[in-house]
Amino acid sequence: MNEAISTSAVPQTLTEQTCVDIRETLAGRRRGLRAMLPFAGPAVVASIAYMDPGNFATNIQAGAGYGYTLLWVVAIANIVAMLFQSLSAKLGLVTGRNLAELCRESLPRRYVIAMWLISEIAAMATDLAEFVGGAIGVSLLTHLPMLPGMLITAAVTYGLLQFERRGFRPLELAIAALVGVIGLSYLAELLIAPVHWPSVAKHVFTPSIPDNAALTIAVGIVGATVMPHALFLHSGLTQHRVTPRNDRERDRLLTFSNIEVAVALGVAGLINMAMVIMAASAFHLSHPAIASIESAWRTLEPLLGSAAAGLFLAALIASGVSSSVVGTMAGQMIMQGFVGFHIPTWVRRLVTMVPAFIVVAYGVDATRALIVSQVVLSIALPVPMVALVWFTSRSALMGRYRNRRSTTAAAVAGTVAVLALNGVLLLQVAGVAFAG
Length: 436
Known about the structure:
The chain has helices spanning about 15-25, 35, 40-45, 55-65, 70-95, 100-105, 110-140, 145-160, 170-190, 195-205, 210-225, 230-240, 245-285, 295-305, 305-340, 345-360, 365-380, 380-390, 395-400, 405-430. The protein has about 425 residues and is mainly alpha-helical.
């Protein structure tokens, strides 16, 4: 990450100009939307984790199999995500260190090793979802087998990661453009699909789990929405982006950060709801057994036309490529934070790509692998959640920026809810049936 430069320097790059604009805003010389735009970036990058191909897989199954019934799960998961991403951003802004670094510096070695291993497994599960999803999109577009599709996805991902050499701003803008592709594609999908909006409104606010399969999908939605690697990543994106010179500047940075989190993750939440709504409108009545991204794409054209199928494919490819970039950034930050030394990008990329290539090479059903990866993420999720709540509640670390009691209570409730869902899922796997 790049430190903010002095306003007296002549900006030469997008990143330098952004740093100048941030300093101008903190000094009170920029107002309105012009003041907000330079601060937009970290939450936008983190938000792509909430729109990755794993979301496509879980949301398609939720909508096709259960109509609008599980929309409330998406809504609640997104609210929890907003809370924890804001805590992660605050941790980086206040301490100047990211979550993985603080874990390594503050916790006993055996806990650090355990957290690192769990986080690495989560990173592999994340990469599995992102790579396989991107490869599915490329394969459907080019009619190539999955393995060449994965190689193309890997090459494009590596190319986008080179933007980081020019500072943080070019990559932020590239990710924002891909988020725009996903959002606009699904907005258009909603205009094409025959949505029953009264049912949408009802099920956003009416909790219901019809059966055990719905419970598995609900846990997958949580795992696909509140992402472990995004909680680590956000603190790293804010820790050095701009260094506040006093508490007044830090207060303003936190205000802008919270606004950005609300907007970026609000958009991500709406896109996730749009995925469920589109699948429910297109598939639930006529094709409720749709369970894969490929079959969803092939079924869309005869149901809603070639435009709907094309938009779906565009959103999937944008999601796979952008989330793979963000996953690599997060994985590198996690590994470097826990081990304490620099890890080359190609090493990080190789570590998390291998499981995805193994899954494809052995012919495992791609969408099923995506669903399982999201459940794995949900099980790994309490690790960074508990760490975030603990660190941001400590006066010795956060000073006057420690969490309020109400914030801590809400964060603890969110963590307990995730733990409860995981416990129910494990009981279900063990053969215990739950009533709807």
